[in-house]
């Protein structure tokens, strides 16, 4: 099974080397610990969540804010808004720069959505994180360095796909996101051994493809 990648577009990357305490606090940072912020917008939210987690693995930064925008990138509020705003905080700009480099590298070379049908009308995210960092560990409740199958698809496809993934592999539910999410998708975070997470992601993708080919089963 070969899926065509849909590469994310990084719309803006900015940093505030010495942020005002009020701005730090408004985004969840602690002025007694953090002095600098790094900000990114992108047209793929889930890819960016994975990339933000990667930043925490490569630099001593904290993800203090990460939120999807309602209805997705096609309904963005502006040219640079995209589908998500992510914010990292650190003690200084050097750490922010290292975190942003890791984030950008992940978006350019790793995390992305894929076309789930021949017409390119179903976008899916059957991503496996081999070793989660501080951000996804905190959000999922899983131990640091756990493997995770990060699965996202439109509502019908996500529901069937997650069910198939759970039946196909020895994985456990860390968190389910029933539709609609902010972008009108559904998602799941599944945990287990790396090979089991990979099997779950494959089963998820196969289910989505099947639905695209045969949407009215009955």
Portion of residues in beta strands equals 25-35%
Please outline the major beta sheet.
Answer: 6 strands, antiparallel
Count of DSSP helices?
A: 6
Structurally, the number of domains stands at: 2
pLDDT < 50 stretches: none
| Share of residues in helices | 25-40%
Mean pLDDT: 96
Pairing-aware structural class of the strands and helices? alpha+beta
The number of strands is: 10
Cα Rg = 17 Å
Return the CATH class of the largest domain.
Alpha Beta
Strand order of the largest sheet: 1-6-7-8-10-9
CA distance, first residue to last residue: 25 Å
By CATH, the topology of the largest domain is Alpha-Beta Plaits
The fourth-level CATH homologous superfamily of the largest domain is BMC (bacterial microcompartment) domain
Please give the CATH architecture of the largest domain.
Answer: 2-Layer Sandwich
Order of helices and strands: EEHEHEEHEEHEHEEH
**Shape annotation:** globular
Summary, kept brief:
Helix content is 36%, strand content 28%. The protein has helices at residues 21-26, 45-58, 93-109, 134-140, 155-168, 194-213, and strands spanning 5-6, 10-16, 36-42, 62-68, 84-90, 113-115, 123-129, 147-153, 172-177, 186-192.
Write structural notes for this entry.
It is a single chain. The protein is α+β, with helices and mostly antiparallel strands and 218 residues long. The chain has helices at 21-26, 45-58, 93-109, 134-140, 155-168, 194-213, and strands at residues 5-6, 10-16, 36-42, 62-68, 84-90, 113-115, 123-129, 147-153, 172-177, 186-192. The chain folds into two domains: 7-113, Alpha-Beta Plaits, CATH 3.30.70.1710; 116-213, 2-Layer Sandwich (Alpha-Beta Plaits), CATH 3.30.70. It has a six-stranded antiparallel beta sheet with strand order 1-6-7-8-10-9, with helices on both faces. A four-stranded antiparallel beta sheet has the order 2-3-5-4, covered by helices on one side. It is globular, with a radius of gyration of 17 Å. The mean pLDDT is 96.
């Amino acid at each position: 099974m070969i899926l065509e990648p849909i590469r994310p577009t990084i719309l803006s990357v900015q940093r505030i080397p010495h942020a005002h305490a009020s701005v730090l606090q408004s985004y969840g940072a602690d002025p007694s610990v953090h002095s600098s912020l790094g900000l990114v917008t992108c047209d793929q939210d889930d890819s960016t969540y994975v990339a933000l987690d990667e930043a925490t693995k490569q630099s001593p930064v904290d993800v203090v804010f990460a939120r999807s925008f309602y209805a997705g990138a096609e309904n963005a509020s502006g040219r640079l808004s995209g589908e998500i705003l992510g914010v990292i905080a650190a003690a200084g700009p050097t750490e922010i720069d290292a975190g942003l480099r890791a984030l950008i590298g992940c978006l350019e070379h790793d995390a992305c959505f894929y076309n789930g049908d021949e017409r390119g009308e179903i976008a899916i995210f059957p991503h496996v994180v081999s070793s989660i960092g501080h951000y996804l560990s905190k959000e999922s409740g899983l131990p640091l360095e756990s493997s995770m199958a990060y699965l996202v698809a439109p509502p019908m496809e996500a529901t069937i796909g997650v069910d198939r993934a759970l039946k196909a592999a020895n994985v456990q539910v860390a968190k389910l996101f029933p539709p609609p999410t902010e972008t009108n998708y559904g998602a799941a975070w599944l945990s287990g051994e790396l090979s089991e997470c990979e099997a779950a992601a494959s089963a998820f993708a196969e289910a989505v493809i099947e639905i695209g080919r045969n949407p009215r089963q009955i």
